[in-house]
Amino acid sequence: MRPLDCVIQEVRSEAPKIRTLRLDREIDPAPGQYAMIWVRGVDEIPMSFSGPDTITVQEVGIATQALFSLGAGSSIGLRGPLGRGFVLRGDRILLIGGGVGTAPLAFLGEQARRSGAEVTSLVGFRSSEEIIFETRFEALGDTIITTDDGSVGIRGRVAEGLKQLDLSEYSQIYLCGPELMMWDIISRARLHSGKIQACINRYFKCAVGVCGSCCLDPEGLRVCVEGPVVSADRLLESEFGRYRRGPTGGRGPCRG
Amino acid sequence: MPSLSVDVGGLRLKNPVMLAAGILGTTGASLRRAALAGAGGVVTKSLGTSPREGHPGPTVVQVECGLLNAMGLPNPSYREFQEEIEIARTGGAPVVASIFGSSPEEFAQIARGLKADAFELNLSCPHAENYGSELGRFPAMVEAVTGAVKAAADAPVWVKLTPNTADIVELGLAAQRGGADAVVAINTLKAMAIDIESGCPILGNGLGGLSGQAIKPVAVRCIYELAMRLEIPVIGVGGVGSWEDAVEMMMAGASAVQVGTAMLKGYGVFEEITGGLSRFLERKSLELEELRFMAGRRS
Lengths: 256, 299
Ligand SMILES: Cc1cc2nc3c(=O)[nH]c(=O)nc-3n(C[C@H](O)[C@H](O)[C@H](O)COP(=O)(O)OP(=O)(O)OC[C@H]3O[C@@H](n4cnc5c(N)ncnc54)[C@H](O)[C@@H]3O)c2cc1C
Ligand SMILES: Cc1cc2nc3c(=O)[nH]c(=O)nc-3n(C[C@H](O)[C@H](O)[C@H](O)COP(=O)(O)O)c2cc1C
Ligand code: FES
Description:
Chain A is of the alpha/beta class.
């Protein structure tokens, strides 16, 4: 597929470095699926859908900065929806997210709610200013918030919130956030790993499963097409949480 | 079942269907996965002397008839890659290291420093400044690089040729003079796609290389011309996605084939092609070797 031209309809500031862009068309993504967003003349980067026609972007480097410089009326190129998204299982689900990783979970929760599932959320942020989608999660059902600095909710990491939950009560658990946060949750919830679906990041280049950039050791799972949603069972046996590859293909540490 | 095993360019392959360079070749695990899925041999991502991040995105564009790419030779350098080759080897198929450099000395340095079952010299990537076809379009350079690697390497040396030239046979003969054990043809055809909404070239690098179905007839022609004139084996690549394509390439003169873009369909393509190839040989009561260059004997 060639990149589809999409006009930005609306830009919404969610937090100091996080913005939601609404596009002029719904391309019918499943929650957990992503698009390759082409900022012309700069780069093309993967972004999860935070709604049927929205992406939510955190400014971290050159391409995301360039996306931030675009206002309503500007256009981007888009390839998508791509990859395998979350699969809804059962009628009592738990969402666990951190930072901008809460974006695909809010989208998933809203879809699950419409199909009658009961939704509980545990979402963590660095501080009160960085909280996003609070009202979206609260509208879905019980919501636990953690902040690293304790300015809102439970003080500490997302895993602190686990103490208030009985994981065996949920038919399925959905996870998205910084890798080390997800790794922390998965390691603590090992007993339940068979029912945890995690939306993960790797360095994507082609996004069609041919270049090898995103492959996860030791199976060589092509995260761009066989993910980005991967079961925690598989992640426990993998490089996840230990190392990841960058743009050269060389191994590096997992940050954040 | 007819035997599919072949001896080609100094390697014995259990079947003639290999994974092409730069396709799912960034990690040892993905190479091993191709071997376990039935590839007769696997080729790594092209490796250079120092780490490269490659071109900015988009790095690929799917067009009606194939795929355009300008990855820009991203790689962690050959020094970082030995471990991946060892992992790839556990898949049970020979692992060919694709290497690139900007001079005969650089190629030789890599060949000396890296252990692999064979080397494939990338003298044909059409979209990386100072590398690939920028050297590989000159017969004298092809010969010099091949000679330097032959002197440095203790494994067979294959030379991958560019079709972006008036006469690919000149390049093949140069590789042969340099002592190559086989040539591999073809790399991508220089190409471009433009976004008509904005007028921007789509690939981050502007120009790229076309692969897939669209280039198969070009590849078949190149292989045929090479097989006609060269004594060393030709390994065919360009648009192979089915067993019929593999048969056609072998009839054009290929001793083995490589699969690149068709990996879009997933790892199942290896079994699809080898299965179809076996059934075809059985139906025609032919040996694999009899396919090779059949078209040359019948024209
Ligand atoms: C499936 C998937 C979904 C994602 N969803 C979101 C989202 O909803 N919101 C969001 O803000 N971010 C998301 N990201 C991360 C986002 O793609 C990166 O933050 C972005 O590419 C950074 O680009 P940059 O040029 O601004 O930063 P750079 O300065 O180039 O890099 C900063 C960091 O971003 C990461 N990164 C850079 N390029 C890529 C790439 N091509 N593929 C993967 N990681 C990269 C690297 O870890 C790098 O260290 C997602 C990533 C993936 C793989
Ligand atoms: C995404 C991509 C990356 C490639 N990387 C390399 C590479 O690193 N080295 C190389 O010699 N050829 C590379 N090639 C070229 C292929 O190995 C092959 O020669 C070409 O794609 C034609 O075969 P196909 O039509 O089966 O893809 C690449 C091709 C693609 C599509
Ligand atoms: S990004 Fe190229 S294979 Fe996944």
